[in-house]
Amino acid sequence: MTIYLFLPLLAFLVNAILAPIVLWGHARQQTHRVFALFLVSMALWGGTILLMRSSTTLEQALFWDKLAFINFALIIVFFLHFTYHFSERRISRTVYAASYAIIPIVGVLAFAGLLADGMQIKFYGYAPVPGALLPMYLVLTYSGISLALWNLISVYRRPTSQAQRNRAGYLITATCFSLLGATTDLLPLLGLAIYPLGIVGNVLFAVLASVTITRHRLLDIHVALRRAIGFLLVIILVAGLYVLASLVIQRAFGNNFLTASFSIGVGLMVVGYLIFSPLLGKVQDGIDRAFLRKRWGPLQELLQFTTETKTMTDLNTLATSFLQLVKGAMGAKVVALLLSSQDDEPSWTSIIVGSDARISTSLDGKSLWLRRLANEDRACLAEEMFSWPEWQYAPSTVRAQVQDLNIKVFLPLRYRGEMSGLLLLGSKTSRRGYSLEELDLLEAVALHAAATMANARLYEELRIQLRELKETQAQLVQSGKLASIGTLAAGIAHEINNPLFAISGMAELLLSSPERHLKSDEATEYVTVISNMSERIAKVARGMLVFSRNDDVAIPVCLNDIANDTLRLMEHKLRSNGTSVVREYYADLPPTRVVANQLQQALMNLIINAGDAMGGAGTLTLLTGVSGGQVLVSCTDTGSGISKEAMANIFDAFFTTKAVGQGTGLGLYITHRIVENFGGEIKVVSQVGEGTTFTIYLPICSVESDNLDAVDPISLTETNQMPVSRDRSMQPTGISRLDSRRSP
User: Fold this and answer.
1) Of 462, 480, 506, which residue sits at a domain end?
2) Is residue 471, in this structure, part of any structural domain at all?
3) Spacing of C-alpha 637 from chain mean position
4) Residue 725 sits in a domain of what CATH number?
5) Contact residues for 299 (Cβ-Cβ < 8 A; gap 6+)
């Protein structure tokens, strides 16, 4: 079959197949029914042309050509009818009837020989001999096509519906293809040796128009044209290089060209294929830059959004930056973002760039329109969503606010299958609609934006939880401190009552006989006792004040002082339990930076636990020293020890080895947290039946001596212990007895 017969056969088959496709699922829509009739008339025209070109005589060809005139008039009428429905322009039934009445008139004129006076043979095949009224026929047909084009242009110029406007752009382009093809059919009648391409134009029109009618979303016509231009330029460039290479090869090989042309041609085709794709990308990029020169920079910034915002952790800053990029890249007047809290009763946060208006954040996540929007995996145009039945049930305040902001696009932000936010775009400053390419870009960026914002929200939640955890920890420390104060109350009262009794006794003696006692040598002794006892009470009071206050300022302190102050508070309890205390303090111990009352609380917890483990009688050893650039304080008891099973959870909150009701399980947990907060660590060594040693290591804040010997603080005896300070002047009066003996 020659191309002369193949083209009309192709036109017949393509239109015959497209007609039922257009009707499929849309048989009740008037626009689809009229367009299907238009395709049927196109198929009949293609079949008529096929029969005309297959004719064996001029008379037979003339008969089919006359029918082709009638079919072509029917095509024009159906197409005009379709454009009126498509553009929603009203036209009276009288005009419709008059337009269809033209068909029989054309039939009479055609068979009267007024449109084609006969047939002739041109270089390509049969061609009609123009009749007397053929010019008038052409004027009428071109007028009908022009009116149809005007209807399509009116739709394209409307700013209301971008989807409909985009369809109109495709239909206008398709109509122009058909017009160009039809014009080439007339040129041979004027004596020009140009092959008629009317059938090719009609086939292109039918395919493009059918896709436009049936597809819900179409690539923006401007984008399609840009890509077509890029494709054609690359085709021309590659073809030109191929022809140039062929000419060079022909000149080089001369008579042997035919022998070498096949293998070299295959090689050139492979090279062309390899360079086609990257070359097309470069050319397309240049064309896009030319067409989008004003928005190219913002578009690239939007594409780089995910890489540039990975370190952003503030949700509001992140969301505002995202909206500003979207606004600049899309050329939108207003961009808004609604973020869901994703709680059991979700609330919404509204962020708007480009307007002072506000969107109601009292949205119900169970609203029908939001639920349907959450199920969409794409951007929804406003005119599409406004046609949803669910939108009619949306709150009137929300609908009014959306209308006031002139929202054109609704894009759900989805993260892990849930809608975490909603991106809203207002109208463009250019008054054009949003193209499919722009919507695809937004959908791609929205996926990354949703994940990035979810990470920022998670970071914010973790920050809040961390703050609450720190507050809870501080409360636990304070509550543990108060509990310790209750435990020490009796001992503190005893420590104060004893010196008060001595002070009271000395004062009564002085007052009973002031003339005799004040002038005697005993007065000096009495006053000295009163002074010492008063100082003892003051030290106890100061120790309690330091211990009980809720201070969080870290200062340099000496562990020897912390240990002494803690023992002073615990002295009565330890003595009454029959506990012997041994202190092994390192002389000239470097300071460490801590909050004194908190470290005192940690050490007190260890001493209380040691006393409970020994059950009364036993030996408690406090040791300070330096090891590995750290200062240390250890608390060793001769109690029952800790089992290996319990050692794994010894620092866990609410874990206790004591009987029910005798311990909260928070003492060692609080101690561990306090030591960690100061940048230190706590270690434990225990042997069941022999005792336990807890050692606290803390960083040195300033080193006064570099010649400090490392020691092993884990020792239950006095062997291999570091030098100790036995200076009694540094010990409080009431505790010196505890240092000099191991008995209660």
Assistant:
1) 462
2) no
3) 55
4) 3.30.565.10
5) 292, 329, 441
Q: How far apart are alpha carbons 567 and 735 in whole angstroms? A: 8
Show the domain range for 43.
3-218
Domains: count for the chain: 4
- Tokens, residue 447: 């996926």
Alpha helix (H) residue ranges in 215-295: 221-253, 257-291
The one-letter amino acid code at 119 reads: M
- Residue 19 amino acid letter: A
Indicate the pairing of strand 126-130 with strand 116-121: antiparallel
Q: 652: which residues sit within 8 A by CB, 6+ positions away? A: 665, 669
Mean pLDDT over all residues of the chain? 74
Q: Do residue 128 and residue 275 come from a single domain? A: no
DSSP string, 20-39: HHHHTT-TT-HHHHHHHHHH
Task: Confirm whether 518 is domain-assigned.
Answer: no
Cβ atoms < 10 Å from Cβ of 183? 15
106 and 39: one domain? yes
Report the alpha-carbon distance of residue 544 to residue 295 in Å, rounded: 70
Q: Are residues 439 and 587 in the same domain?
A: no
Helix (H, G, I), strand (E, B) or coil at 478: helix
Spatial CA neighbour of 539 closest among 735, 738, 302, 318: 735
Q: Are residues 409 and 365 in the same domain?
A: yes
Which positions ≥6 away from 743 have C-beta within 8 Å?
A: 580
| pLDDT digit string, tens, across residues 312-351 | 667 777 777 778 778 877 778 888 888 776 555 555 666 7
316 and 390 in a common domain: yes
Contact (CB, 8 A) for 640 and 690: no
Residue 532 lies in a domain: no
| Contact yes or no for 368/400 (Cβ under 8 A) | no
What span, in angstroms and rounded, lies between the C-alpha atoms of 31 and 24? 13
What H or E segment, with its residue span, contains residue 694? strand 691-699
CATH number, domain with residue 382: 3.30.450.40
Query: Could you tell me if 209 and 35 are in contact, meaning their C-beta atoms sit under 8 angstroms apart?
Result: yes
Which residues partner with 425 through β-bridges? 335, 409
At which of 191, 218, 245 does a domain end?
218
Q: How far apart are CA 343 and CA 9, in angstroms?
A: 64
Instruction: Assess whether 213 and 232 both reside in one domain.
Output: no
Q: Which residue has the tokens 């000096």?
A: 524
What's the first-to-final CA gap in the chain, in angstroms? 122
How far is it, in rounded angstroms, from Cα 538 to Cα 691? 35
Residues 705-727 pLDDT 10s: 443 333 333 332 333 333 333 33
* Contact criterion met (CB below 8 Å) for 624 and 585: yes
SS3 351: strand
Q: CA-to-CA distance for 408 and 506, rounded, in angstroms?
A: 94
Higher pLDDT, residue 530 or 54: 54
- Please name the residues in contact with 50: beta carbons below 8 A apart, sequence gap of 6 or more: 5, 8, 9, 12
Same domain, yes or no: 62 and 176: yes
Would you state the structure tokens that stand for residue 590, as one six-digit string? 């470097």
